[in-house]
Amino acid sequence: MNMMKMMKQAASMQKNMAKVQAALAEQELEFQSGGGAVVVMISGDGNIRRIRIDPAALEDGDAEMLEDLLLAAVQGAQEMAKTAAEAQMKDVTAGMGLPPGMGF
Predict the structure, then answer these.
(1) Whole-angstrom distance, CA of residue 43 vs CA of residue 20
(2) Is there a smaller number of Cβ atoms within 10 Å at the N or the C end of the chain?
(3) pLDDT of res. 104
């Protein structure tokens, strides 16, 4: 009897996770670096959608500075997406009694 309950919970969790993953793919997050000189748009599932560079950031010709801003923006956006995904997956797995680290 307990095994059937666990199987139903697992099937429900799998269905909910698929819904969350679809919602994350639709979610759009934005991260800026350099006071908005570089903006990265990323989906909640971690796919970078757009990168915008303010033309003023190109004027002084400092490629190394622009590279640093771009890297910071991409890493920040990826961290945002990861945090969003973890929060939504945690909601799906809440109450499942999963061991630490298994609740995403």
Answers:
(1) 13
(2) N
(3) 47
Residue ranges of the domains in the chain?
2-93
Beta bridge partners of 38: 33, 53
pLDDT tens for the chain, residues 1 to 104: 688 888 888 888 888 888 988 999 999 999 999 999 999 999 999 999 999 999 999 998 899 999 999 999 999 999 999 999 988 888 776 655 555 555 54
pLDDT at 98: 56
Candidates 3.30.1310.10, 3.40.50.720, 3.30.470.20, 3.30.450.40; CATH matching 2-93: 3.30.1310.10
**Cα-based torsion angle of the residue sequence 76, 81, 86, 88 in order, rounded to the nearest 10 degrees:** 140
Provide the 8-state DSSP code for 56.
G
Residues 40, 48 contacting (CB under 8 angstroms): yes
| Distance separating alpha carbons of residues 81 and 61, to the nearest angstrom | 31
Please tell me the distance from the alpha carbon of residue 39 to that of residue 54, in angstroms, as a whole number.
8
